[in-house]
Amino acid sequence: MQQTVTSTKSVLTCLVAIALCASQSLGQREIEIEASAKNVGKYEKLELSIRADSRYDNPFDPEQVALTVLLKTPAGSQISLPAFYCQDYERRRLDQGRGRANWYYPIGQGSWKARFAPMQTGTYSATARLKDQKRTVHSESVRFNCTPSSQKGFIRTSPRDSRFFELTEGAPFFAIGQNLAFIGEGQYVNLTKAEQIFNKLAQNGANFLRIWTCCKDWAMAIEAKKSAFDRSWHRRKIIVPIPGSENDPTPRKCVKLEGNDGASITVSPSHPVALQPNTRYVFTGKFTAEGASGLRVNIARDNGKTHFNAPAKGKWREFRREFVTGENDFWLARTALSLVGAGTIWLDNLSLKEAAGGTELLWEADINRPIRGIYNQLDCFMLDQLVEAAERNGIYLMLCLITRDLYMNSLSDDSSPEYQQAIRDAKKLMRYAVARWGYSTSVAAWEYFNEIDPGKPTDRFYAELGEYLEQIDIYHHLRTTSTWHPSAKDCRHPRLDIGQLHHYMRPQTQQSYKDEVSVVIDRVRFLRQYAPSKPVLIGEFGLATPKWGLSENMKQDSEAVHFHNSLWASAFAGTSGTAMFWWWDQLDRQDAYRHYRPLAAFLADVSFAGMNKITATASDKQLRLLGCQGSDRAYLWLFNPQAAWWKIVVEERQPKQIKGTTISVQGLQPGNYTVEWWHTYEPKFVEKKRLSLTQGALRISVPPFSRDIACKIRMTK
């Protein structure tokens, strides 16, 4: 009997062991990883598709589910790469009027991906790890090879001179560009227009753009409320608690429609809703009523109006309206919900899907989705497209990521629970950004906020968020932020890598309004005072009205004189890039991109690393001389103040030609020098000569010019 029991126990033990092994084996199969290629170039994108069978309420929340790719490098080290959940889209370029040039339609259901840019050549292995609140599972490993490429790598702070940028492979980088902040189908710049502008910028030598992904509902915004019923500039009072839940601490919301017979609301998402031609769709929801006898659903496509009788008081009734698109139907037509009889109706669970099933198309009608922690997938897809366009054109992007007004009030007290929650939510957003766009060498920097209140106690926020990025961003992208007034504390913050300020010339400060060069010099002085050892940028710049609108003077300046002067002044005043102009639509209308080309040509073989402010004088004392120098070289810009935009555009005075001027440059070591004088309105030099210096200052004759001229002075061997 004892032997039988022992045998039975042995069998049970074996069965348990087999079951555990089977369970583990099954667990391994719950997640699979596949690489898009077996070979990938250094710094180029490899996409890893990850199949995970489990479903989650919020797959964007790493506290619910954290999917990570564990990479073993050719050197034998291991790095962790965050993966991300996304919805893919098909894109078509259509000419449908009213700004609807881009048609986006979801492809299948959401999926998991990881994107990786290898930074070492050799063989890698990748394993997906899924961790949720119940278990941790791993995939089998996949292998791929990294081969050499011509890519120059990511933008870094230069190890040779921390005031300037450099690419990973050692090439210097000077940011030449502007803002292109609002990108959306209702904006002057939609995605197609943005791609065209990227190309124009590249053709003219520009290499840098500041992009907003935080535009709330008027353009691209990754994390923001986007509503089918109101807008951020006009919040209507139709979003209310579900009847009977008014006193709940966190009531579920619904849409309230009240008034006389025929009163209506229009379902109007901020993104035009794309549809497939020749496809059956179903529009559904539920409603309850008080007084009104029914609900009328009107989808303008076929002028059909469907009437649904009201349920008994206190009850809810579901409604369903089907329609079929025509051969050339690509958009959801005007959809209105109206009262039958006077009274009130409450609407909930509005939905639009293909009748055969599929992805939710009317996601902006979900008024109960969280605003923070849910990432608008259509906007994310648009950013995918922008990043790819930047890669094609050699453009580097500073992405302004966090929608300020979702966070700013939470950052008023750095010891409050709200502050801590803001940090947690921002970390999740940054994790998503690193996972989805961090692979790209065209992502130059993460900018946390656009113009947050500089009086908020944000030091802790930037410290904790910066430390988190140092752990998860394997590419070590630079970090910055901006405030609505210059912020010395942000310039000094050790976990903000780029010092930044914004400035607009406005007419109430008459003297500086008329003198763009002195304004640039003054703003750079502030940046260099508080960020002496960091890259610095004037992140927004331009002419503005007293109320910060587009100045009529900018429209009047059809030649873009102020734009030209500010570009050259900022390049030689000590910044790490040109002043980034804000009025991108006006620059585009004036085709002002040509002004980048001469500066880009001049700077093509220039590095400011290790150089100091130039010690030089001009014989003509009215001239302004900006530049920098080392012991064996100098780069300078000579500007005639009579060529300031105010004098040329407003006073309509053309500057006279300046002749017979010389400059003296101190501090150069004795030797032979090549001196090149460059046009600033054309990408070519005026003259080239050789000079010898035995001692003292190098004296150089300046060619005749009227507005401005630039010079390269380099020792020859």
Commentary on this structure:
With 717 residues, the protein is α+β, with helices and mostly antiparallel strands. The chain folds into four domains: 114 residues, Immunoglobulin-like (Sandwich), CATH 2.60.40; 301 residues, TIM Barrel (Alpha-Beta Barrel); 114 residues, Jelly Rolls (Sandwich), CATH 2.60.120; 107 residues, Golgi alpha-mannosidase II (Immunoglobulin-like), CATH 2.60.40. The strands form nine sheets. Strands 2, 4, 5, 8, 9 and 10 form a six-stranded mixed sheet that branches. The chain has a six-stranded antiparallel sheet with strand order 30-32-33-38-35-36, covered by helices on one side. Strands 14-15-25-26-27 form a five-stranded parallel sheet, covered by helices on one side. The N terminus is likely disordered.
Structural class: alpha+beta
State the low-pLDDT regions, or none: 1-28
CATH topology of the largest domain: TIM Barrel
The tally of structural domains comes to 4
- Treating each run of at least 4 consecutive H or I residues as one helix, how many helices? 14
**Count of DSSP strands:** 38
Beta-strand portion reads 25-35%
Q: Return the average pLDDT rounded to an integer.
A: 93
Overall CATH architecture of the largest domain: Alpha-Beta Barrel
User: What would the principal axes of the Cα set say about the shape?
Assistant: globular
